[in-house]
Design a protein that fits this description.
The protein contains 14 helices and no strands. The chain is mostly helical and 226 residues long.
Length: 226
């Protein structure tokens, strides 16, 4: 079993990504996962593999049809001589990670899956989360903000995957501001609290600079209700 080879293969797989799902993201999720796992009785190798592979078959990168096959994950693990029994554990955990899975009522059940899920969601908020959501919007040619258009909320997983947010700013309300409440481990909850507040502070400052008091009020109502 060669985890270094897994890393090299994932780097190659994601080298051209411009949507915020590059290996920089994977590395941060891996580092945060290992930090969370340090205070928990988790299988370190399983945590590493889930973290490294959790995005190589993401539907945003390979399309909805191919995403469900996990071809890239299996190919990488086979090349790195990961035991078949461990391969199955990794895939079963990856199948339960992600916001769209949450919208389907699917959540991690293993400790290792919960750790990586928390780390992945934490990387969607905070300073790097802001950079990632901006990068993703730019990659799709999506406008960042329109003061006259407020969010129309995502209804379900299908709506989330196929429609998405009309403006990048809407994504904060469709998803990012909700992630703090989805943490499943104590280390994840503590980290998400800090990152969530950073994101809220950014939005308050942004709406102030845009002279958009209606959006300030909208944010206040949203935070109170959620």
């Amino acid at each position: 079993m060669d985890l270094n080879q897994v890393t090299a293969l994932v780097i190659n797989q994601l080298k051209d990504d411009k949507t915020g799902h590059s290996f920089d993201h994977i590395q941060r999720v891996l580092d945060l996962s290992l930090a969370f796992a340090g205070s928990l009785n988790a299988d370190k190798d399983l945590v590493i593999l889930i973290a490294l592979l959790h995005d190589v078959d993401d539907y945003k990168l390979v399309g909805l049809e191919k995403a469900s096959l996990y071809e890239n994950s299996y190919k990488i693990m086979k090349q790195a001589n990961i035991p078949i029994s461990l391969q199955q554990k990794v895939i079963e955990n990856i199948k339960r990670i992600g916001y769209s899975r949450y919208l389907e009522g699917i959540r991690p059940t293993s400790l290792e899956g919960k750790i990586v899920s928390d780390a992945d969601m934490c990387d969607a908020i905070g300073a790097n989360g802001l950079l990632r959501v901006y990068a993703y919007g730019r990659s799709k040619g999506q406008p960042f903000f329109n003061r006259d258009v407020f969010p129309t909320f995502i209804k379900d997983a299908s709506d989330y995957r196929q429609t998405g947010s009309s403006y990048t700013i809407h994504h904060f309300f469709d998803k990012l501001l909700k992630l703090k409440s989805l943490m499943m481990t104590n280390p994840g909850k503590k980290e998400a609290e800090v990152r969530h507040q950073y994101m809220v502070d950014f939005l308050r400052q942004f709406f102030k600079e845009e002279n958009a008091p209606a959006w300030q009020s909208y944010l206040d109502r949203f935070l109170k209700e959620n």
